């Protein structure tokens, strides 16, 4: 127990492989919300008198960073609205207003988040329940829409192969390979 009789989380800036911040003991970044909070865990967090608890939603933060570093005009425009619906509509070739919430979740989020974290064609095929050939076709279509992201990813892969590290926009470096030689998994991670 701490002297102030409170539980304090531990924030970590370098624990995740992707560079995201994380917290533990307790993990305050993954507290269940609303109907998913079956045990009403959020009720345990109480602000002192004259203080407020503030919750930050990093809504699509990774995609916003990707749009910024890649300067992808299509993604920047899509982020003005519902980016997952925009991606789904593009991949399926349908108007955005026809995208269902299930399609948005399955296709839009899978593409938008999975691909910026290095998901392979095999992984995409598995998640979408399609053949690798069909997944590759969808992936090609995705990168046709977001071509600057593809160029940025290729340039990053080339950079890490040559210099052995990647650097965030704030100057944080992550060196590769961590243990052995640089492999395709390291490249995707970078």
Salient structural properties:
globular, mainly alpha
Short description:
With 190 residues, the chain is mainly alpha-helical. The chain is 46% helix and 6% strand.
Describe the structure.
The chain has helices spanning 61-70, 73-78, 83-92, 101-116, 121-128, 132-145, 147-163, 184-189; strands at residues 10-12, 22-24, 165-167, 173-175. It is mainly alpha-helical and 190 residues long. 46% of the residues lie in helices and 6% in strands. The mean pLDDT is 84. The radius of gyration is 20 Å and the shape is globular. It has eight helices and four strands. A hairpin with a 5-residue loop joins strand 3 (165-167) and strand 4. Strands 1-2 form a two-stranded antiparallel ribbon.
- Largest sheet, order of strands side by side? 1-2
Q: Structural class, please? A: mainly alpha
Helix content: 40-55%
Strand composition percent = 5-15%
The succession of helices and strands, N to C, reads EEHHHHHHHEEH
Unreliable segments (pLDDT under 50, ≥5 consecutive)? none
Overall geometric form: globular
- Average pLDDT score: 84
- Helical element count? 8
What does the radius of gyration come to?
A: 20 Å
Give the tally of β-strands: 4
Task: Detail the topology: elements first, then pairings.
Blueprint: E1 10-12, E2 22-24, H1 61-70, H2 73-78, H3 83-92, H4 101-116, H5 121-128, H6 132-145, H7 147-163, E3 165-167, E4 173-175, H8 184-189
Antiparallel strand pairs: 1-2, 3-4
Helix pairs in contact: 1-7, 3-4, 3-6, 5-6, 6-7
